[in-house]
Task: inverse folding
């Protein structure tokens, strides 16, 4: 069965209508729309074809249709018209970013709150390091009080961590010097995954009297490197889902809210095919989000760091508007971190690739 231009036009009208009303759409409602010069009977036949093709679904309690995940995907890829931010919107967004970022040090937390407020959906902000994996650049062992020493670990991400470690009674100053040399010779330039039990065993054999300290030091080092690999996730506005008609069902709302956490967000893929990425329903890797959609975009923070902002909402969300607002936020944040300036207040088209 061919997906004709008329079918696409009807599908776009159904998605647009359903986004606004959250109610199944009938043929009469579509026929009454401006520019739809087709009879209700013809539209009804086309809707039946679109249902058979998998782009529409028919709820049991209604004669109307709603978009399927495949219908939303076609809409996002081909049919969605760009949403144009007004001058008032861009000025308001600039003011929100400017004021919040002046008042709070924890920028990314505030970014999430701003995005949530402007989309009226749960939002998240993620920071991650791009490029090489974290490795140890240098170890330093400093004598402290009698019976202890300070281990200093410097990484290639310019992070410095230290830990106070108690000394066994038989450890002398020269033993610590040997341990420091062995650590710097054996563990530098290795990622957490590259520090294997075999390497640990070799270090213990080379550390002499300080061999029993090696597992403590290696465990601490691996934890530091693993922490730096993890993305920092800031999630906010989860309760905004309760304002959406889809989540008036308490059980459905609880199912999503109980699983929408930082761990689920951290496992979402970063945009790869363009500045904005949209995951519709079952396309989400996280099974907890199979009945929701995610719109995300990224921006550069500088110093080897990348930021990502996104929203989670019903598959019925206004993709064009959300995409336009997220794109504008990302542009503004990229400029702010890079050059400390906001984008100009002008009408803006949103888009996705």
Result:
């Amino acid at each position: 069965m061919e997906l004709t231009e008329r079918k696409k036009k009807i599908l776009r009208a159904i998605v647009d209508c359903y986004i606004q009303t959250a109610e199944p759409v009938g043929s009469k409602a579509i026929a009454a729309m401006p520019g739809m010069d087709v009879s209700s009977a013809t539209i009804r036949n086309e809707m039946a074809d679109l249902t058979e093709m998998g782009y529409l679904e028919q709820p049991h309690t209604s004669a109307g249709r709603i978009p399927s995940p495949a219908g939303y995907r076609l809409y996002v890829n081909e049919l969605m018209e760009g949403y144009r931010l007004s001058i008032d919107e861009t000025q308001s967004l600039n003011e929100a970013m400017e004021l919040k970022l002046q008042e709070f040090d924890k920028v990314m937390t505030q970014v999430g709150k701003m995005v949530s407020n402007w989309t009226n959906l749960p939002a998240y902000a993620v920071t991650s390091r791009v490029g090489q994996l974290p490795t140890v650049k240098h170890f330093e062992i400093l004598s402290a009080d009698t019976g202890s020493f300070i281990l200093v670990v410097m990484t290639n991400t310019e992070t410095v961590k230290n830990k106070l470690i108690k000394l066994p009674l038989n450890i002398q100053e020269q033993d610590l010097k040997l341990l420091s040399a062995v650590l710097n010779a054996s563990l530098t330039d290795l990622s957490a995954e590259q520090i294997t039990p075999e390497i640990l065993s070799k270090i213990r054999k080379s550390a002499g009297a300080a061999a029993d300290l090696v597992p403590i030091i290696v465990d601490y080092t691996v934890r530091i490197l693993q922490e730096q690999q993890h993305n920092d996730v800031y999630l906010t506005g989860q309760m905004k889902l309760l304002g959406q008609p889809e989540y008036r069902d308490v059980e459905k709302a609880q199912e999503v809210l109980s699983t929408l956490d930082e761990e689920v967000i951290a496992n979402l893929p970063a945009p790869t095919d363009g500045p904005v990425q949209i995951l519709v329903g079952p396309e989400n890797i996280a099974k907890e989000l199979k009945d929701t959609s995610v719109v995300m975009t990224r921006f550069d923070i500088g110093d080897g760091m990348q930021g990502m902002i996104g929203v989670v909402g019903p598959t019925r969300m206004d993709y064009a508007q959300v995409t336009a607002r997220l794109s504008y936020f990302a542009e503004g944040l990229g400029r702010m971190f890079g050059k400390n300036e906001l984008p100009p207040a002008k009408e803006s088209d949103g888009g996705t690739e």
Remarks:
- The CA atoms of residues 112 and 124 lie 5 Å apart.
- The radius of gyration is 27 Å.
- The mean pLDDT is 85.
- The first strand starts at residue 56 and ends at 57.
